Amino acid sequence: MKKIMTALILMGMAASAVAQITEVPSNNGGVESLRGSAELNITRGADKHKRVIKDREPLQRNYVHQPPIIPHQVRGYKVNLNANKCLSCHGWKYARETGATKVSPTHFETRDGMTLSDVSPRRYFCMQCHVPQVDGKPLVGNDFKAVDSLTQN
Ligand code: HEC
Ligand code: HEC
């Protein structure tokens, strides 16, 4: 028994010595991002998916012309050549019935300021500008305050 223990301890020491030798020196130049440091030759594991808020009242806007943040889930909402799920609620035709905010008139304007009779191609892919919201911890502190004219309550 004693012999086996000694053998195990020796093996353990040998293993840790090997581990020390094979340890790669840091190759990222000591640069650390907000998400921590990562070696250049090692693929960093992906962060866990955040939980998107389910369904809420519209969220406060922080400045004029901010694209409002999406206060609901969007999983499975397709936007492609044949269909635009977002417009099936937010389009002017359906907004009253679905209770969704109408897309604003700017969404019908071309880049040259022409107003089209339907949503302009540059505003067709909604999630280029609008994003769903999660209750995430801010990466850095922020004491930004919205302008008075937009602050509710
Ligand atoms: C099933 C209907 C439905 C679909 C589909 C839908 N929405 Fe909504 N959306 C709503 C409703 C209802 C609200 C909340 C309106 C309210 O409470 O005033 C809302 C709110 C929003 C708001 C906030 C508006 C504001 O004034 O703050 C944005 C932005 C938005 N949705 C974008 C999208 C986008 C982008 C898609 C497609 C990926 C989408 N929605 C798909 C129904 C829908
Ligand atoms: C190129 C960026 C961009 C794209 C693409 C875009 N939006 Fe917007 N959206 C904005 C901005 C900026 C605002 C706020 C200022 C304004 O109304 O133009 C806005 C406002 C809105 C509002 C609030 C309107 C109001 O009266 O308060 C809704 C709802 C909305 N967008 C839905 C959509 C939907 C649905 C799509 C896809 C069909 C879409 N947006 C595509 C930039 C965009």
Overview of this protein structure:
With 153 residues, the protein is mainly alpha-helical. It has a domain at 50-137: Orthogonal Bundle (Flavocytochrome C3, Chain A, domain 2). Helix content is 21%, strand content 0%. It is built from three helices and no strands. It has helices at 2-22, 87-90, 92-98. The longest helix is centred in the first third of the chain and has 21 residues, at 2-22. One heme C is lined by residues 57-58, 68, 70-72, 74, 77, 85-86, 88-90, 98-101, 126-127, 130.
Bound molecules: heme C
Characterize the largest beta sheet: strand count, sense, and whether it forms a barrel: none
H-E order: HHH
How many helices? 3
Summarize the structure.
21% of the residues lie in helices and 0% in strands. The chain is mainly alpha-helical.
Q: What's the helix and strand layout?
A:
Elements (H helix, E strand, L loop, with lengths): L1 H21 L64 H4 L1 H7 L55
This protein binds heme C (2 copies).
What are the key terms here?
Flavocytochrome C3, Chain A, domain 2, 0% strand, 153 residues, 3 helices, 21% helix, binds heme C, mainly alpha
